[in-house]
Amino acid sequence: MNFAASDTFGAVPPRDTDDIPQHTLKILVAGGFGVGKTTFVGVVSEIRPLRTEERLTDASTGVDDLDGLASKSTTTVAMDFGRLTFSGGVRLYLFGTPGQERFWFMWDQIAYGAVGAIVLVDTRRLSTSFASIDFFEQREIPFVVAANVFDGARLYTVEDIRNALDVDPEVPVMLCDVRRPDVAKGILVTLVEHALQSSGPQ
């Protein structure tokens, strides 16, 4: 498959229902509670994204860790779903995983058939990223780490984040603002290229 970085901004809507892409890839968007998964899927999807958000209630008190998330009022209870088609016939199906521990039992089902994953990281709460990283490492699913830089958060270098998360040197790590479509698309390109390299001859 020829998937060049020049395609990063070449997302085009499908012309009609008969426009069948040459390649379809399933991508996961994972990470801890409140790291920006729903935002990521929504900002790049060419279709109206499917969301399974519910309002946080008193029942989640003491269950969901809201430290640093005072303004968060909803949570994903199943998954987010979106789609993005690149010029050249590559279509990505994006599945955002639920971040809370009580929903982790769904991850294996959601991950089935995925070629790779994006692990979104909140540098204010790095510990919430370890479960996602462990999940993909154990299942040998290629992934990249994208540190979502929140307003007012302390800035860290890529190497600081890599060392703190203890990921392998070949795993791409980058800083990002997932509210920007161009940045989110660039992360997807990096992931697909990494997944292709990982699946090549060893």
* Class derived from helix and strand content: alpha/beta
Distance between the termini: 18 Å
Low-confidence region ranges: 4-10, 56-64, 68-77
Strand content: 15-25%
Largest sheet: 6 strands, mixed
| Gyration radius, rounded | 16 Å
Mean pLDDT: 81
Count all strands and give the number: 8
**Total of DSSP H or I helical runs spanning 4+ residues:** 5
The portion of residues assigned to helices is 10-25%
Q: What spatial order of strands do you see in the largest sheet?
A: 4-5-1-6-7-8
Helix/strand order, N-terminal first: EHEEEEHEHEHEH
How would the global form be characterised?
globular
How would you summarize the topology of this molecule?
Elements: E1 23-31, H1 37-44, E2 53-55, E3 74-76, E4 80-86, E5 90-96, H2 107-111, E6 116-122, H3 130-138, E7 143-148, H4 158-165, E8 173-176, H5 181-198
Parallel strand pairs: 1-5, 1-6, 6-7, 7-8
Antiparallel strand pairs: 2-3, 4-5
Keywords:
202 residues; alpha/beta; two-stranded antiparallel sheet; 8 strands
What does this structure look like?
The protein is an alpha/beta fold. It has five helices and eight strands, in the order βαββββαβαβαβα. The protein has helices at residues 37-44, 107-111, 130-138, 158-165, 181-198; strands spanning 23-31, 53-55, 74-76, 80-86, 90-96, 116-122, 143-148, 173-176. Strands 4-5-1-6-7-8 form a six-stranded mixed β-sheet, with helices on both faces. A two-stranded antiparallel sheet has the order 2-3. Strand 6 (116-122), helix 3 (130-138) and strand 7 form a beta-alpha-beta unit. The two termini are 18 Å apart.
